[in-house]
Amino acid sequence: MFSQNDKGAETPVQSVRETRGTPRSSGETSVISADLKVIGDLVSGGDIQIKGIVEGNVKSRSVTIGESAQVKGAVSADTVHISGAIKGQVEAPTVTVAKTAKVNGDITHQSLSIEAGARMEGNCRRLEAKKPAETTASIASLKPASSAPSEPSKKAVGSG
Amino acid sequence: MFLNLGTARDDSARQAASGISLAAGEAYTVINGDLTVIGDLTSDGHIAVKGTVKGTINSRSVEIMPTGVVEGAVVAEYAVIRGSVVGPVRANTVTAATTSRIVGSIFHNVLTIEPGASLEGRRPWRPHIDRNLDNE
User: Fold this and answer.
1) Which of A34, A38, A46 sits opposite B27 (nearest CB)?
2) Contact, A136 vs A153, CB < 8 A?
3) pLDDT band, residue A27 (cuts 50/70/90)
């Protein structure tokens, strides 16, 4: 995977794995350090690690909000790790809230994990995966299955 | 290199530090190639810009890398420009590297221009430049 120079070829699985500590070969992580204050929006196709203050919206593939970080604004990404303070909406398929986090705002997610000790104020809303064809198919397959079992089970009792 | 980048885990951050000496444990910010910041950056540490910043950068030291693009003012004590800046540069020590392109005035106390640098604008000397004062 390190021989691939094409950024577009990276799968989301790789990006998640790499945010968990594996060093990147091309160094795509942007770092907003502890004494940096950004007033404005951040837009990235890579990873952003925030340790400072951001007043504005953040849009990226992966966002890590460190313990010292303060974010005022909406965060939207594929993966969001929150260890610091955030005031604003979070929208991501995968959201991880650490025990040091202070979240003041709504979280829209598909997969959410909250560690004991995290301060949460706001709604957590699950966003269903965008697969409408599969969900209608599964509902159709459930209907006959749910009505059918009552009769065969009676027969089974009678015969046994 | 006697660098102690306490806050930066990224290897590229260490590489980016070449040319600017950092105090031990000094905060180090990297705006990478795929990041666009629309707004202002303020720091007392170091900022390396490889991506795009549309707004003012005010930091103790700033390095605009060859891929970096700044549309706005760069205000610092030490500024190394290797990329593109459209806007004024105000710093005590300014280095315009070979790959740099600066469209705007360069307010400086010490200015280094490497051969190949593309500079458009005035380059006024000042006895001292205070980055906390908006005096120009």
Assistant:
1) A34
2) no
3) low
